[in-house]
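Incident log, entry 3
Record: MBL fold metallo-hydrolase (282 residues)
Problem: checksum mismatch between cached and fresh output.
Input:
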Amino acid sequence: MALTLHPIPTGNFKLDGGAMFGVVPKSIWQRTNPADENNLCSWAMRCLLVESGDRLVLIDNGIGDKQDAKFFSHYYLHGDDTLEKSLHKAGFGFSDITDVFLTHLHFDHCGGSVRYGKDGSSLETVFPNARYWSNQDHWSWATEPNPREKASFIKENILPIQESGQLEFLSAGQEQFLPDFDVIYADGHTDKMMLPVLQYKGRTLCFTADLLPSVGHLPLPYVMGYDTRPLLTLQEKEHFLKKAADEQWVLFFEHDVQNECCTVKHTDKGVRVDQVFPLSAL
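Fresh output:
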């Protein structure tokens, strides 16, 4: 059965440009991602809704709204989009979601999983009828975090999913989630991040998550300072981009504030952007 896809923008936030581009000098990365006076660049939190038969799968869900003002003051949330508004625009509500597929458990990807209940103090899952999908290796990585990533794995975003009984794990190495919905694992950014690869309108589309945050990250050395294993990310990007160029994949960006999708091509400088376009152009 053919998939139907809906981009789900959940708002934008800001992160330090130097952290987002690692060893690449600002004089170079600011050409594609201009920074403000505080060296911060704007980034999207663009999720993806997948209709597959009787399944309605939400891939990631943004930063959420339950953290305190001090937390949000670091990230300068902006834009008019929210998770709820975007789902409603697509014709759905929280209770319609059957599956929440979490690429990984950093706060800007899974914060919308959990909210405070009506009493204002207890935590509850946002999607009451959904199964939440991770994998055992990444779940262990997130719930027993290393000091480098500890601030990105927020227990309020993660533990209530398990406590609700809604948590499910993909089997070790499982490469298909649903028909026309496969999974690539990547370990450079964080352990066992999952990238959905979808068959859509005769094309292969990959939700790039944090392997490729934006068009500006296509050159191989452009690796985030947040990555736990940057040399491994470089290798994973090289393999991924070669395949994407060879097979004319569509790349769907979670964090690129300007560009929703692109294709890539081989050049004498390596794999580079070919065309950029919205998902609706397919």
